[in-house]
Design brief:
single chain; 107 residues; 4 helices; elongated; membrane; transmembrane helix; DUF2818 domain-containing protein
């Protein structure tokens, strides 16, 4: 696997993972969210956990391709967290805006 393909695979994984908390009603995809579904705090906790999971995958890919891990400062993590937040926007909009409009239209 070359570096370009690996980078795009990690970006695609990040996009999918960032949207998963807003598309599922199960807490960490294992437990039922209850009668009212899972709350916003659970969604944000899942989002943060998935950020770290994708980061771990990216570190593994970097180590596999380069044989070493390059040191990063806080700016790198701030930028990746913001990018992960931007990636989550479609799922967030679907959950809190579009889904309600679609339900009204069906009724």
């Amino acid at each position: 696997m070359n570096t370009t393909v690996a980078v795009w695979m990690v970006i695609g994984l990040a996009f999918v993972a960032a949207n998963l908390p807003w598309l599922s009603e199960r807490i960490f995809f294992l437990f039922s969210g209850g009668e009212r579904g899972k709350g916003a705090w659970w969604r944000w906790a899942e989002w943060l956990a998935l950020y770290f999971v994708v980061g771990a995958v990216a570190l593994g890919v970097e180590n596999k391709l380069n044989g070493t891990l390059y040191p990063q400062d806080w700016e790198f993590f701030a930028v990746t967290a913001c990018l992960f937040l931007v990636f989550a926007l479609p799922g967030f909009i679907y959950r809190y805006d579009l889904k309600q409009h679609l339900r009204r239209r069906q009724a």
